[in-house]
Amino acid sequence: MILRKLKQSEHDRTRRLWEEVFTEDTRAFLDYYYYIKTRDNQIYTVEEEGEIRSMLQLNPYRVVVEGEEFPSAYVIAVATKEEYRRRGYMGALLRASLHDMYEQKLPFTFLMPAAEAIYTPYDFSYIYSQDTGILLHREPDGMLCWKSAEGRSSGKADAKEDCSIQCSDAGLWDAEEMAEFFAEHFADKFQVCTVRDSAYYQTMVLEQQSERGGVRLIRGNGALKGFYAYAGEDGLEIREPLFLPGYEEAFRGSVRELAERCGRQDRPEIGVHACPAEFSSEKKPLIMARIVCLSRFLAALRVPEEECVDCSFAVIDPLVTENSRVWKVTSCEGEANLHVRETEDSEGVLPVAVLTELLFGRVTAEELKMREGVIMPERLAGELDKITKLTRVCFNEVV
Fold first, then answer.
1. Rounded to whole angstroms, how far apart are CA atoms 332 and 340?
2. Assessment of whether the complete model's pTM goes beyond 0.85
3. Phi and psi at residue 380, in whole multiples of 5°?
């Protein structure tokens, strides 16, 4: 067994394994992925007899945490040839990639799991749940009807259109405008999200086009009022609609028009992912994350300026052992930053996965007291509660 990180010129060698394991992906999508995404990603492989038997890919992203940018990586395409499974290859690939990510001081890494149970042994925890719903369904007579958040029909989707609204597919040249729109109207809504610059939206356009879709722009009197991604590969699916207040009906009208143009008649429903609350019928756990460089992650957190934090705790991290230290975190009244250093005196003990759940606001310090491996005295729980939790997260990336 040989485990190594491939040179960029070797990345195409992994495509055969991808096609063998992820049979649902089309040639058009893989052409896009291996032309665009593998230009600057990292691919780790296990080889036997000179052939790739297992792989793990890291796609680089810039992420924003409380207003500050950091490097991060999306773990994707974790795959092993069927006859070589259950040999520990996945664990070996994760450990090697986590070691390299720690050396690069990435605060955390994230992924979209095929199943939660695959990644919990490696201390990944859910940090983001996505609102999903059904936008439209077809009646037996073929008429499109809207769905409400409760799943009931909410009337025929044939309202008169506003002539001031224009909808069109985005081109690469629209990416800068989309990035400015997000920065002005939506960036402040999230504590944690990927950096949405023009390069991000250019990639989004190309990715959606590879799935027989695109990014649909909604303009009012010529000005950008919203946009959303769509895929038409398997029916019609809508992803991450972003539009200004008052343009809900414009969004509905745009989707109806798109459904009539490219929605397949044999698909009775049109789904929407990462949607506003009024369109949501389910909140689905989607993205898991793992802390990589704990000291850098802790230093990115914020504390209300009227609070003072002063506590210490031991962290247990069996994979990134550099995190297994006793950490002291402090802040002074009048400042929002958290100061982090190593110390010797610990008030409690927290496994790294548990700490991830706590700091992303998935559980409270009080709820953790009964967890295995946790030592959480009242004073420590009170101090950790003062730290502002990262509850407003947005990760809707597919690859």
1. 13
2. yes
3. -65, -45
Q: Which two tokens stand for residue 218?
A: 């909604």
Which SS3 state, helix, strand or coil, does residue 156 take?
strand
pLDDT > 50? residue 154: no
- Residue whose token pair is 């309202």: 159
CATH number (domain holding residue 134): 3.40.630.30
Tell me: the pLDDT tens digits for 294-321? Answer: 999 999 999 999 999 999 999 999 999 9
Domain limit, last residue, from 240, 262, 285: 285
Amino acid, res. 134: I
**Statement to judge: residues 142 and 277 lie in one domain:** yes
If you search the block for the tokens 């058009």, which residue do you land on? 28
Q: Residue 265's domain spans which residues?
A: 130-285
The DSSP bridge pattern shows strands 144-147 and 125-138 to be: antiparallel
Q: Which of 220, 251, 285 is the last residue of a domain?
A: 285
CB 359, CB 389: distance < 8 Å: yes
What is the distance in angstroms between the CA of the first residue and the CA of the last residue of the chain?
A: 28
